[in-house]
Design brief:
heterodimer, A: 308 residues, mainly alpha, two-stranded antiparallel ribbon, 5 strands, globular, B: 254 residues, alpha+beta, Immunoglobulin-like, 2 domains, 6-stranded mixed β-sheet
Chain lengths: 308, 254
């Protein structure tokens, strides 16, 4: 069944979009991530313009992170103080990201920036994640206990001024790195159309030493805020948020996530990280190939608006 | 400058007067199968049919045969054409050219090749054919790659087409043509300009219009997004939150 997307201005098969929502939702439930880094590229690959994809996916991510955040909140695994400071940085970062998006679109370099960002970010994160999970898998095969995290590493980061005690996470850190992490995630999310969970969770664990008990719930609150504000800011400045597209994705996403969560619980965390690393790297490579392969057509046209 | 323009206008006026008895000798009557195309959720393109007839009267020279050119042009827009170039191993948009005031849709249908119907000068003056759109007329460099790419890409999307055999004469004066509209046709008012030629000149013409509109939900969403961006974003976000909340209630596991 075809449905006409009012903002993307193109007819698509409603079941294809729904299936993509379910598939990405499944993966996001399995790995406990938002899945924006998969959804935005998928939409681009089926012919939706990168600008519309980047602007529309955040509302889909807001839906899935809200349902996740509610679950974690009920279980008391959200650190409200940490989340509040993260999202202060996150909203500012989102604003900067949307501003850059407007500028790049006017310069005609948005598509390239989106593609380059995907290549750079996903390759680095994918390789690191693969490397780390392979070592962990080897260790567990040899029957060695996992290496305990060394306290005191990154001491200078945590020792910056304006230190605050975050009771629920049981950490005492400077708010400067917290604000900066929020800023980075908000910025990257608005430019690339991702929630940034796969980036945020390792940053919180390794840089701020947030315990695993509160890290997922807290990061979901940040994703929710940055994605909600990205939706509003993109809608207000670029008018590119396709609500029909987003709604179909959301419905597919929340259904898929339920099954994904169950599948994820049956796998060891090292193996999950290994698979996620592979997936992230594959998406990055796909963008890299598109950038270096000689294009079939050197020209593209874009309508700037009605002539006066 | 103004004086010269006035003289030119005067000359043109005189020529029109001279030509008018002949120009009034025929009348063109045309009708569309549909003047209003609505883009609904299941719109995937449409084909309109144009019917018409050339009415002769007593002053019409006998045995005069006609050629017909139908030009359908959509609302004009500003379009930028980008060219990718290789930089440090990566293909990026390097150079661009802006085309101002070009029709977003342009279809030129005739019963014979345009160059057979009239000479190049007449076609240019009557603005007939894709090559004679003022904003797209070839500059000094006749083979401007940006212009060629623009025309090719528009053609590939079915938005620019020129066809020398799509007007069919059912009788020497009764004609028919179909106007295909692709799935991603731009909305707006389209003008349909019909010109009848005889002996290499225009003898009569008629004009009608098609309106392409988004209606219902499509139009509501598109208009809200354009005119009330912030409110639209807020409502989309609220929808997202409701979906998320609903999911967390329905699939609650504890």
């Amino acid at each position: 069944m075809q449905i006409y997307l009012p903002i993307a201005d193109l007819p698509v098969n409603i079941f294809l979009i729904l299936a993509m929502g379910v598939a990405v939702g499944f993966i996001s439930g399995m790995f406990g991530i938002g899945g924006g880094f998969l959804m935005t590229p998928l939409l681009i690959f089926i012919g939706i313009s990168p600008a519309v994809a980047v602007a529309s996916v955040p509302s889909h991510l807001a839906a899935s992170s809200f349902s996740g955040a509610l679950n974690y909140w009920r279980r008391g695994t959200v650190d409200p103080a940490l989340a509040l400071i993260l999202l202060c940085g996150g909203i500012v970062g989102t604003g900067l990201g949307v501003w850059l998006f407007v500028v790049l679109r006017a310069l005609g370099q948005l598509d390239l920036t989106v593609a380059l960002s995907y290549v750079a970010l996903l390759s680095i994160v994918g390789v690191l994640m693969l490397w780390e999970s392979i070592r962990a898998i080897r260790r567990s095969r040899r029957g060695e206990p996992p290496i305990p995290r060394r306290p005191g590493s990154h001491g200078w980061i945590l020792g910056l001024p304006f230190k605050l005690r975050f009771k629920r996470s049981k950490i005492f850190v400077s708010i400067i790195p917290v604000l900066l992490i929020g800023l980075l995630i908000g910025f990257v999310g608005a430019v690339m159309g991702i929630g940034g969970g796969f980036l945020l969770v390792p940053l919180l664990i390794y840089l701020l030493r947030v315990p695993t008990s509160t890290v997922i719930g807290t990061s979901m609150v940040l994703t929710l805020t940055t994605m909600a504000s990205a939706t509003i800011m993109h809608a207000a400045t670029n008018h590119l948020v396709d609500a029909v597209l987003a709604l179909i994705l959301m419905i597919g996403g929340v259904i898929g996530a339920q099954f994904g969560t169950r599948a994820g619980q049956r796998m060891s965390s090292e193996r999950l990280r290994f698979l996620l690393g592979l997936l992230i790297l594959a998406v990055g490579m796909r963008f890299a190939v598109d950038l270096v392969v000689r294009p079939e057509d050197f020209f593209t046209i874009r309508e700037l608006g009605p002539s006066q | 400058m103004t004086a010269r323009a006035a003289i030119a206008a005067g000359c043109l006026g005189a020529m029109t007067l001279l030509a008018s008895p002949d120009a009034r000798a025929e009348q063109l009557i045309a009708s569309m199968s549909n003047h209003r195309v609505t883009i609904t959720p299941n719109y995937t393109g449409e084909e309109l049919v144009l019917f018409g007839s050339i009415e002769r009267d007593a002053r019409t020279p006998a045995n005069r045969s006609y050629d017909l050119v139908v030009t359908v042009s959509g609302p004009s827009a500003t379009v930028v054409t980008w060219r990718k170039d290789r930089l440090l191993g990566v293909w990026i948009n390097r150079e661009s050219r802006v085309f101002d005031n070009v029709p977003s849709y342009l279809a030129v249908f005739a019963n014979r090749p345009l160059t057979v119907i009239a000479n190049a000068e007449t076609l240019r003056r009557q603005r007939i054919g894709i090559a004679n759109v003022p904003a797209l007329q070839a500059q000094e460099a006749a083979d401007d790659p940006f212009r060629a790419a623009f025309l090719r890409l528009k053609g590939e999307r079915g938005l620019y087409r020129e066809s020398a055999n799509s007007v069919t004469f059912l009788t020497p004066t009764l004609f028919r043509t179909s106007i295909p509209l692709p799935a991603d046709v731009p909305v707006g008012t389209y003008t349909v300009d019909i010109k009848a030629f005889a002996g290499g000149g225009v003898v009569t013409r008629a004009e009608t219009a098609i309106e392409i509109v988004k209606i219902g939900f499509e139009q509501f969403v598109a208009e809200a997004a354009r005119q009330h961006g912030a409110a639209y974003g807020l409502i989309t976000t609220l929808f997202a939150l409701m979906t998320g909340w609903f999911a967390s209630v329905v699939f609650r596991r504890d």
